[in-house]
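Bit of a strange request maybe. I'm writing a small parser for structure token strings and I need a real example to test against, not something I typed by hand. Could someone generate the tokens for this chain?
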Amino acid sequence: METPYLPVPWVHREVIEEEIEKGTKGKIFYFAGEKKVGEVEGRIVKMEDIPGKGIYIHLDPDADIRIDRIITLFGMPAAAFEEYNAFADSCMDCMGGYEKEDLE
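Reply from user aminoacidic:
Good idea to test on real output. This should exercise your parser:
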């Protein structure tokens, strides 16, 4: 099941547009599903708003990624970076099955 599209701050869209203009080629890490990280290497050729689905980038070679699911874009934090960081740090919030009082 695909997560609903979340609005992306303009700064992330501007970075994507700059990278399209520069013709940058590199790696993009993104959420490829619930709690699954995917990666692709290529050059962004177009950013497109698909009604009812969200804004996508199209890469060469053939790949399409919704921009609100991008974790890093060519090594730079992107729209889903905070979500990824929170997911990575989630174990730091747990207490290994103990109650707080047991650990004091």
